[in-house]
Amino acid sequence: MKLELRERTAEHVRIYFERTQDEQIDRMLPRSVASLEQALENFAQTRLPDTKSYGRTIYMGDRYIGDIWCYCIDPKETPNAMLSYCIFEKDCWGRGAASLAISLFLDEIRAKYPLTSMGAFTFADNAASIRVLEKNGFAIHERFTEDGRESCYLERSLQNRSL
């Protein structure tokens, strides 16, 4: 599988927002934005010099299949950043794309920022996402209920490990 991470553009944000409105994806993806305008504003913030967010697009060959990003980047806090990802092309699910994208992204983010730990949230009933994160060295640290839905918080150390 030829998978690579590429730069995000405003056009990617538009496509991503549209593709993630799918009902099945919506049930699995915790949301922080409710509108395309808000998504584009968040993207614009990632372009500022003091940004606390960094994202990439996920391509399989020449096909844009999803996004991966980290937010709340702060080397002085624990964890130092939070990870989020989504493969919106359903025919790519279960083929290792998310696992490989996370591995590539962790290599890239570790070279770019002095991070020692990374956290991630997922819904507890999203077993596939939990497996993908665990394959990349994340471990469940907490289960909790928020807005009536059971969720998991996972964390991974980035210290003294080759990614």
SSE arrangement, N to C: EHHHEEEHEHEE
Instruction: Report the sheet with the most strands, covering strand number, pairing sense and barrel closure.
Output: 7 strands, mixed
Number of helices: 5
Q: What topology, given as strand order, has the largest sheet?
A: 1-2-3-4-5-7-6
Would you report the number of β strands? 7
Secondary-structure arrangement, i.e. CATH architecture of the domain at 3-116: 3-Layer(aba) Sandwich
CATH-defined topology of the domain at 3-116: Aminopeptidase
Description:
The chain has 163 residues and is of the alpha+beta class. It has a domain at 3-116: Aminopeptidase, CATH 3.40.630. Helices cover 32% and strands 31% of the residues. The chain is built from 5 helices and 7 strands, in the order βαααβββαβαββ. The chain has helices at residues 10-19, 23-28, 36-46, 97-112, 127-135, and strands at residues 3-6, 54-60, 63-71, 82-87, 117-123, 139-146, 149-157. Strands 1-2-3-4-5-7-6 form a 7-stranded mixed β-sheet, covered by helices on one side. The chain starts with a strand and ends in a 6-residue tail after the last strand. The model has no long low-confidence stretch (mean pLDDT 93).
In short:
The chain has 163 residues and is α+β, with helices and mostly antiparallel strands. The chain is 32% helix and 31% strand.
Feature tags:
163 residues; alpha+beta; Aminopeptidase; 7-stranded mixed sheet; 5 helices; 7 strands; globular
Question: What's the helix and strand layout?
Answer:
Elements: E1 3-6, H1 10-19, H2 23-28, H3 36-46, E2 54-60, E3 63-71, E4 82-87, H4 97-112, E5 117-123, H5 127-135, E6 139-146, E7 149-157
Parallel strand pairs: 4-5
Antiparallel strand pairs: 1-2, 2-3, 3-4, 5-7, 6-7
Helix pairs in contact: 1-3
